[in-house]
Write a structure and sequence with these properties.
Blueprint: H1 2-14, H2 18-48, H3 61-67
Length: about 70
């Protein structure tokens, strides 16, 4: 997902077309929302299934960047 975000970010920087930039911004927002949902699910797994308590949520750079 991080690679997908980098591609969208690059395309946004080089795009001169306003409509295309708007679509790229939507794509970036979608990637951020999906990343955040993934983190919420991973953080809630041990509560939902105690057998998965050993699953450690990953700290992904994108999540941290999205919060800033």
């Amino acid at each position: 997902m991080a690679e997908q975000f980098k591609v969208l970010e690059h395309n946004l920087r080089v795009s001169q077309n306003a409509e295309q930039r708007a679509e790229l911004l939507k794509g970036i927002s979608t990637v951020i929302v999906i990343e955040e949902l993934d983190q919420l699910i991973l953080n809630d797994l041990p509560r939902l299934n105690p057998n998965l308590a050993s699953v450690t949520p990953m700290n992904r750079p994108l999540s941290n960047a999205a919060r800033q």
